[in-house]
Amino acid sequence: VQVFEEISLQPYTQKLCQSFYRDYISDPQMTHQDFVYDTKWVQRYYEKKVQEKDRAFFAICRGKDIIGECQLKHIDLATLSATMSIHLQQDRYKNQGYGTKAIILLCSYAGQNMGLKTLYADAVLRNLRSQHVLEKCGFTRVKQDENLVYYMKPLV
Ligand SMILES: CC(C)(COP(=O)(O)OP(=O)(O)OC[C@H]1O[C@@H](n2cnc3c(N)ncnc32)[C@H](O)[C@@H]1OP(=O)(O)O)[C@@H](O)C(=O)NCCC(=O)NCCS
User: Fold this and answer.
1) pTM for this model (two decimals)
2) Ligand 1 near 98 CB (within 6 A)
3) At a CB cut-off of 8 Å and minimum separation 6, what does 23 contact?
4) What is the C-alpha separation between 2 and 110, in angstroms, rounded?
5) Is the CB of 151 under 6 A from ligand 1?
């Protein structure tokens, strides 16, 4: 039995962002480049990307510890749509249902709190786990190119 109660989405602060990247290990299903932690890089990432007007970032927390980050990007209030993305910090947090839970929480926040009607997502072709999880969360495959599979989900 998987226990989901402890997973929550929290406002993403600079402190949580530093703590996420301090112990971040990149996933070979997304990139083959190793990640090297650099406080200043994270500070710039937080100031430039996390705080962009058309994005909403969240810390994925298990209890009070950050285990992942997720975001809605390209938030478009004209079409009431956005694109979601997610990554957990390290392998030790993966395959335990946390990603699925976080995506469900993000979808309901996007629909209920932001009034969005459509979410998009994409996954690297070789990232079969991500594709499986998106499909499990109700996303439908809409197209594919040489790098990515594209998904959408209507929010109710
Ligand atoms: C993708 C990610 C967010 C999923 O979160 P997670 O907590 O690991 O996933 P869950 O435990 O909720 O679910 C994993 C599911 O994938 C399945 N799975 C695992 N490896 C798989 C593989 N190689 N191929 C297909 N399915 C796979 C599991 O069996 C499970 O499915 P089930 O519940 O039907 O049995 C997480 O693994 C992650 O951060 N990966 C690196 C970053 C990334 O890929 N981001 C996605 C960009 S859209």
Assistant:
1) 0.95
2) yes
3) 89, 90
4) 24
5) no
